[in-house]
Specification:
It contains five helices and no strands. By secondary structure, it is mostly helical.
Length: about 180
């Protein structure tokens, strides 16, 4: 006969994050998606690249759109996941790494922004246009991030209320059936 222990069993310790192959897969796939979207935006905007206005001539629409879209998405994702306790930690980690680090990281590009800024200021000798590009990118990026936080938080709050309503309606219906 074997004795059954009534002592609580220790749960196995979680795998260290860097040893989780699934994280590498979701970051890779997200990065490929984000890079593809950025390439598409740049290719689509290649012909509408320059403005006749000397101050706006430094704006590179594809890079600007990609960076602003990444600010919006990453902020919305982070705010949503932070406000969604019903989502399992593992799912939050995979979504954050795949969509956030991978897709938004591949979509946004600091190196291309720096190259375009340098090209506008040094090669084109248009420092005012380069300053406008940097300022628009910074200010619009902060605005898009704020909108993303508002949207992600609102969505999480709305879904939380919806889940509570469904839960209370289900409990009420079960009570009525008794």
């Amino acid at each position: 006969m074997s004795k059954q222990s009534h002592e609580p069993q220790e749960s196995p310790s979680p795998k260290p994050t860097l040893l989780d192959p699934m994280l590498y897969v979701v970051v890779f796939l997200g990065g490929a998606l984000g890079t593809g979207i950025r390439f598409g935006l740049s290719a689509y905007n290649a012909d509408i690249y320059r403005s006749a206005d000397p101050l706006l001539s430094g704006l590179r629409n594809g890079t600007l759109e990609a960076n602003l879209f990444a600010c919006l998405l990453y902020a919305a994702l982070t705010a949503y996941l932070a406000g969604a306790p019903w989502i399992a930690n593992r799912s939050k980690t995979l979504a954050s790494r795949g969509l956030g680090m991978g897709m938004c990281g591949g979509l946004s590009t600091m190196s291309t922004l720096a190259l375009e800024w340098f090209t506008t200021s040094a090669t084109d000798h248009n420092m005012p246009a380069a300053a406008v590009y940097a300022g628009v990118t910074l200010i619009a990026g902060l605005i898009m991030a704020a909108i993303g936080v508002w949207f992600g938080s609102s969505l999480a709050q709305w879904q939380g209320l919806r889940r509570e309503t469904i839960s209370s309606n289900t409990a009420r219906e079960e009570g009525d059936q008794r």
